[in-house]
Amino acid sequence: MTAVMSIESTQLVDDVMRRWPATIRVFMNHRMRCVGCPIACFHTVDDACREHGADCAKFLMDLQAAIDKGPGEPTAKLDIVTARWPDVG
Which residues contact 68 (CB under 8 A, 6 or more apart)? Predict the structure, then answer.
């Protein structure tokens, strides 16, 4: 049986983004510039919603949807580039 992960408004913003990287897009979609913010390790989700004027209930639903969906598949295939030393000759 798999435990259901749920988000709460009392969790720290930085903890949320580190634990569930898929939530980063939700912060950005809600025009919250929390990614990389030095205050993110002190602000709860509720604090961030209040500071940014976001509807906390809607934001929590969007965060939970991102968590439930999971990381998903990459949108673009990454090409691996091998570094080579130039021929000295």
Answer: none
